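Technical appendix A lists one of the benchmark inputs used to test multi-chain prediction within the project. The record comprises four sequence entries:
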Amino acid sequence: MPEKNTGKSAGVEKRPHRQLSIKDIARLARVSHPTVSRALQNSPLVNAQTAAKIRKIADEAGYRASAVARGLVTRRTRTIGLVVTTVADPFASEVVCGIEQTANDHGYSVFLADSNADPAREKKVVQAFAERRVDGIIVTSSRVGALYLPLLAEMMVPIVLVNDQHPGAFVHSVMIENLSGMRAIAAHLTKLGHRRIAYLGDRFGYQSDVERLAGYREALHEAGIDDVPELVVHGDGKPEAAMEAIEKLLALADPPTAVCCYNDMTALGAMRKIRMHGLHVPEDISVAGFDDLFFARYTQPPLTTIRQPMRRMGQLAMESLIKLMSGEESVAQIRVDAELIVRESTARARKQ
Amino acid sequence: MPEKNTGKSAGVEKRPHRQLSIKDIARLARVSHPTVSRALQNSPLVNAQTAAKIRKIADEAGYRASAVARGLVTRRTRTIGLVVTTVADPFASEVVCGIEQTANDHGYSVFLADSNADPAREKKVVQAFAERRVDGIIVTSSRVGALYLPLLAEMMVPIVLVNDQHPGAFVHSVMIENLSGMRAIAAHLTKLGHRRIAYLGDRFGYQSDVERLAGYREALHEAGIDDVPELVVHGDGKPEAAMEAIEKLLALADPPTAVCCYNDMTALGAMRKIRMHGLHVPEDISVAGFDDLFFARYTQPPLTTIRQPMRRMGQLAMESLIKLMSGEESVAQIRVDAELIVRESTARARKQ
DNA sequence: GTTTCGATCGTACACGTGTGCAATAGAGAG
DNA sequence: CTCTCTATTGCACACGTGTACGATCGAAAC
């Protein structure tokens, strides 16, 4: 009675101590390897009892089918590529979290790549994805979305963008309602009696910045306030740049009594600089953010902001991608609603 | 003269429009496919001119070698699995960033998996890694490190842990000098004249908490201060729990004049609650954190803390793993130094 | 008894790449 | 001219899985 001895070769083992393959299981179960394959896929083509027996043996042996071999023959790897400008950003990491969870729930594994906003690196990681034969790609907050067009064409793989900064280039994307969100914030401020309201934006030209700026303007117009160009300044979405940008506002002869920040990170820098000037939020100046990152409720004072359902957005992007990968159609542009969260960084304007 | 027509079969194409393979390039270059393989690997076995010509053709055709086919025959996928309790944590995401960068620099791709601190999920993702045939695994801040032992044995793959909470179970890890770090913070406070210094920790029993608590005690002993059990309380490393935990300290008949927090997230919650009690930092009570997350310099007041070189730690973990995957030895326990960053949340104790 | 049909299972391939080995050709030595 | 050696290339396999197709067998139909 032959035991586990295969009789194949007596040669020395290679370093990585041979994982056991489907053929090993076939030998143990005294069937052919296709039968094992079918049994593990719960195929109706195999006898129920045999299948159960095979599954039991495979399980006890700790057998794990090789996804790479399967991917080779199936031509579908059940992996997706996720490129993000940087994971070390609270917004991105929440989105990544949502994507990873739903990918995992659907049997997909995700390759993570950090582009660091470096176009060369971004191109490199997408090439890596091409070699890995990913089934789809998600890109979040890309500054260089247009770069993907040729690569996309080359890879023949669906792509979904989250909060892309260059409109129209891609069909599938999920974004927040930037305009109505920022309009809600600005309207909140006008209702508090503010008339000199500033906008501290991201880099000029990015779609989300354009849309939020538009929302800010709409709210002001509705309140009968005219545009004041000197009250619109730009940072880069991060605290450092915000600290510089807000200097221009504070140096004004008639400084604003409230400022709408492009996002919470910007608000963080703004509030810090305001404090360094000896001023107080919200007594001297109201500050509002956008995103509702985890720290928004812990700032001093807690930040009034717009909540973006970041994980949900990641989930939606992944679900959309899954549809596309299955050959189905999916909604091209998904827009999620923004929710105003009023905390203590905004207050009624002082009587002039 | 035969053109691109392969003459193989006139059957209809499958859906995913056949990527071109090494054989396509071979046909274009009028050589055999092994020659193409060797040319693209810069093998000395192939004529320099032929190699150059092949590479040119492959490049112009936009050919991308299939990493999955290569992985199958090579038995090395050049992928690693990265499991993290949650990416949506500023500490973890910085580490992930460091790991991804250096992995990418060395030609490795990384599978990201979020365990959500759920043991079942954690097991599931590691099984997925096994099927993907990853060459190595990195686990950050695992609460359940011990769970990996059997899976590790099964996979025969090197593992590196970052900031593991269960000492001794694994050989390879990279951690911060918790003890000396927290001792530096506490000593900083004693030098400012504080005598009633509290410790607001993570869950009891986690290694990093144990070590930081020990550092705190050492500093107090050096300053001739006795242990006061009521001044040591525990949260869970997040702001919410910190807000609850610090209540116990504030409710004391003789409340502390300074509190060492397990990390910056804890400090965030602590400062918020202190403010809600109408007290001021640092006038009424000094607060110190640990980690130096991005927001530490933007809190009000900016947070005194210990800087952890998070990206560097990720880099070190990845470099260590690369060594192990190459069969080399690597330092078992890597400890990186902590650096005290004094900002404005700590001040001289008021005269009693 | 033969025929037919469905249920099971095995055989033979394919996926795209890497690599040991043989084959060939050309150069140099004798 | 013959032999040897080296440089270069092709042939034949292997990696581990999925799947079309044929083979077998038993039962049911005739």
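The first strand of chain B starts at residue 79 and ends at 84. Residues 19, 21-23, 33-34, 37-38, 41, 65-66, 68-74 of chain B lie near DNA strand C (CB under 10 Å from a C1'). Comparable benchmark entries are summarised in Table A2.
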